[in-house]
Amino acid sequence: MLVSAKEMMTKALAGKYAVGQFNINNLEWTKAILLTAQELQSPVILGVSEGAGKYMTGFKTVAAMVKAMVEELGITVPVALHLDHGTYEGCYKCVKAGFSSIMFDGSHYPFEENLAKSTELVHVADQLGLSIECEVGSIGGEEDGVVGMGECADPDECKTIADLGVTMLAAGIGNIHGKYPANWPGLSFETLAAIKEKVGDMPLVLHGGTGIPDDMIKKAISLGVAKINVNTECQLSFQEATRKYIEEGKDHQGKGFDPRKLLNPGFEAIKAKVKEKMELFGSVGKA
User: Fold this and answer.
1) Which pick of 50, 121, 185, 204 has the fewest CB atoms within 10 Å?
2) What is the pTM of this model?
3) Where are the beta strands (DSSP E) in 50-165?
């Protein structure tokens, strides 16, 4: 059964750890993440971008697959199915499809418009018992065509959005999606501390978790980050393992071309990466 992310966020904030959001792109991704969460007894959030949702033929398909997989695999840890960087329209589509959590990314709108749309969607989520994440200050890099420059959020704007009653708040602190460039200056902990001072016990979200040094991750968690998003690292792990399998000619050995064999090294690589991240975030055994 899918659950809202609200309880897992409250527990993570109180326990000084973070719950990982791992984006899913297909069956292998979903199965690998769910099995790892169950093995480690960790709560988990499955993130779905609008692009990935379209790739998997639609949000209804994604929700049906995830719900059935949770049941068939006997998953007992808390699992939230979450729209990642959703548009206003996308949020409503996911609500109808049966997602248990949504993110509205209105950071590219003028602040007043972001506030108005966030207010409406917070009310909808509250009425339906869903968790909702909103964003202030765009996250750098590109994700499914959404480009951000890596702004640092305004702490006062963060407080205004937090006061709407959002479940969790994504605030730009110099983080970016994808690979970090060699000249990346690092996270702005000064901004994070200022935001934390304004929003109090609001669980904060760190997007672009791939490539941030472990010590920065741990410091961010100590300053109120309760949810960390990981996508690119799983993609890279999957790609490297699949490339190795093919370069070693294993796809030509026996029935090595069978997709179940061809995709298995990548599947195992995702499991290993998710385990590594859950241990780093401190969510192991917290289900």
Assistant:
1) 185
2) 0.93
3) 79-84, 101-104, 131-136, 141-143, 146-148
